[in-house]
């Protein structure tokens, strides 16, 4: 059988590249690798330089936290308000005394008397009892009268107050049942307008002064009667309070 090779059949492989061509290819590939390594090194060095300039003195952990927190929204915290004397919302002027009277409310809400940030009567002191609690202040001296059922000693205590004394009165539970007429007269003589209106378990607070005039803008008395429909506590009205600032130089 005879074979025949047409004109379209492929020819055999060409001659191999010369030695100089092979050497040139190797040099080109090596040069490209060197350029790439140098470029990558420059990029890494420049990135480190920028980081060092941005956070020069911070440790690495702090730098990482700073970068992470760049996109976080800052949280603004309001400063803690400074506590005022007798828990006032605003401070009293430096030439005045701060006071706060709080009646009792229910069985567990005891009456309180605070003067110049000193708790004179309160549950913490264990000197509050059922009835009218009285503190007489002739600063810096303070006399306390825990309530008792007999109005006689209370009347004498009020009448014994020294001139230019301040008298603070607050009720806990009921202060009216055993209050006789002599006691009412003694309190009324100090300027009370509500002592004769007091009813069973009325919440009542009163500030008075003996032998001097209190500023007219001071709220001196407040009362809240027991009402079955409106009582905050079962059988008791809500506690009430008055607070203010009394001038140190009193006429």
Automatic annotation (TrEMBL):
Look up keyword Membrane and say if it applies: yes
Name all ILEI/PANDER domain ranges.
Answer: 130-211
Q: Which residues cross the membrane?
A: 23-46
Chief location of this protein within or outside the cell: secreted
Q: What keywords are assigned to this protein?
A: Disulfide bond, Lectin, Membrane, Secreted, Signal, Transmembrane, Transmembrane helix
Q: Mind naming one GO cellular-component term on file for this protein?
A: extracellular region
GO MF annotation, one = carbohydrate binding
Where in or outside the cell it occurs: the entry states: Secreted
Q: Matching Pfam families, A to Z?
A: ILEI (PF15711)
State the family named in the UniProt similarity comment for this chain: Belongs to the FAM3 family.
Protein name listed in UniProt: FAM3 metabolism regulating signaling molecule B
**Gene expressing this chain:** FAM3B
């Amino acid at each position: 059988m005879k074979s025949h090779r047409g004109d379209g059949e492929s020819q055999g492989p060409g001659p191999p590249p010369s030695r100089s061509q092979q050497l040139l290819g190797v040099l080109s590939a090596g040069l490209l690798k060197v350029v790439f390594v140098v470029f990558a090194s420059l990029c890494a060095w420049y990135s480190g330089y920028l980081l060092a300039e941005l956070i020069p003195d911070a440790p690495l952990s702090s730098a990482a936290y700073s970068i992470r927190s760049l996109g976080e929204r800052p949280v603004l915290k309001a400063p803690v308000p400074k506590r005022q004397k007798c828990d006032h919302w605003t401070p009293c002027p430096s030439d005045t005394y701060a006071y706060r009277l709080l009646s009792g409310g229910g069985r567990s809400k005891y009456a309180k008397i605070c003067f110049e940030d000193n708790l004179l009567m309160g549950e913490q002191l264990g000197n509050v009892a059922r009835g009218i609690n009285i503190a007489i202040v002739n600063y810096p001296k303070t006399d306390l009268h825990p309530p008792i059922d007999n109005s006689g000693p209370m009347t004498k205590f009020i009448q014994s107050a020294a001139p230019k004394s301040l008298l603070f009165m607050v009720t806990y539970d009921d202060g009216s049942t055993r209050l006789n007429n002599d006691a009412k007269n003694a309190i009324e003589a100090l300027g009370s307008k509500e002592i004769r209106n007091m009813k069973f378990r009325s919440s009542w607070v009163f500030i008075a002064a003996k032998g001097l005039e209190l500023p007219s803008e001071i709220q001196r008395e407040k009362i809240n009667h027991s009402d079955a429909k409106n009582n905050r506590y079962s059988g008791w009205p809500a506690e009430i309070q008055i607070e203010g600032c009394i001038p140190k130089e009193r006429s």
